[in-house]
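Internal ticket #5521
Category: modeling
Description: The requester needs a full-assembly model to guide mutagenesis choices. All entity lines are attached below as received. Residue total reported by intake: 370.
Assigned to: D.W.
Attached entities:
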Amino acid sequence: MPVAQRLEHVALELFATQGFDETTVDELAAAGGVGRRTFFRYFPTKLDVVLGELDEGLAGLVLALGEQPGDDPVAAARAAFLAVNRYADVELPALRRRLGLIEDVPELAARATVRYRDWESALAADAARRWDVDAASLRAQVFGRVVVAAMRAVFSAWHARPEADADALGALVDEAFDALARGFS
Amino acid sequence: MPVAQRLEHVALELFATQGFDETTVDELAAAGGVGRRTFFRYFPTKLDVVLGELDEGLAGLVLALGEQPGDDPVAAARAAFLAVNRYADVELPALRRRLGLIEDVPELAARATVRYRDWESALAADAARRWDVDAASLRAQVFGRVVVAAMRAVFSAWHARPEADADALGALVDEAFDALARGFS
DNA sequence: CTGGCGGGTGGCACCGAGTGCCGCTTAGCG
DNA sequence: CGCTAAGCGGCACTCGGTGCCACCCGCCAG
């Protein structure tokens, strides 16, 4: 088992039992059988142990967006998100733990939103392309941010339903995109 | 001039000239003529010197939302935001400086989004009331987050236009809410 | 076999944010 | 005049994060 993965696993364990703030980096490093200094070589921040793979999806999202045809950004974004968020049943418990931590450790929530900035930009750029407008235009910018916000709501809602499975996640994604497509009035 | 206000003023000055990260709390305290310990009695965090009054608007927003009639949450939110964000010309430069800092100091952006959680909740609750659905329903939750996301895009866009005035801000708000009302497809 | 080379490691010292504790001043009041 | 209470701020401490450097170990050249 590679060091990074071991550290990540051990860390989520400790966070779950002791709480995030109550667990120091020294403990994490010790539990992972590595020096404190080495810990920071694998994760720039204590926060990033939790968020680590969440944004590995960015590359995937950009790729998936690129593959979508048509001139409707909503449809493209919907398809891309559905494609990217295909989780195997085995992965769901870990996903739940992560979401739980992000949800109720404010610092983590904050850090997560910073990570999402790239997603917002990517979505805005894609929408601008399909609409044939400037990527800096308000409409494109609003679109990018709004889609990410909706996805955060989806994950939050999914996490709140204790026994929702992967299909439920897809259904929520669809529902959210329906709202974005049709508007709220 | 009260201590808090003086500290805030001096801090924005120093942040503008030296940068946020390059300015230590000791400098802020010294520049404000108080002890380091006292600084932390007025602001829980260095970050909060910048964000301070940004979320004083929450109470105002909730109030304004309450005053809006009708069963369309978009219209209500639009009116509430327009009512809350009435800035006098004198306030604009300070607003610009704040927005600039929030925009390009990631830590500040992160902290700001945490503050916005309450706004999201308030908007979701209001929408749920007008639609007569559960406040925890996906539609209401998505609405709350999406509106705040759109407003962030508006402020960002406004900040990006160097000579936009208070009226321009209102116009951007309208444009964003139009998009939310009609949908993106 | 030996001596150099390079990457991963981790100890050490340091910085800055944030906190608890406590002694000091000062204003208000009996 | 003395007592009290509140604001102030120094001091010491914790913890996250960083720069520096010595060390270990596998590798290759001589």
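Resolution: model delivered.
Comment from assignee: The CA atoms of residues 12 and 18 of chain B lie 10 Å apart.
Ticket closed.
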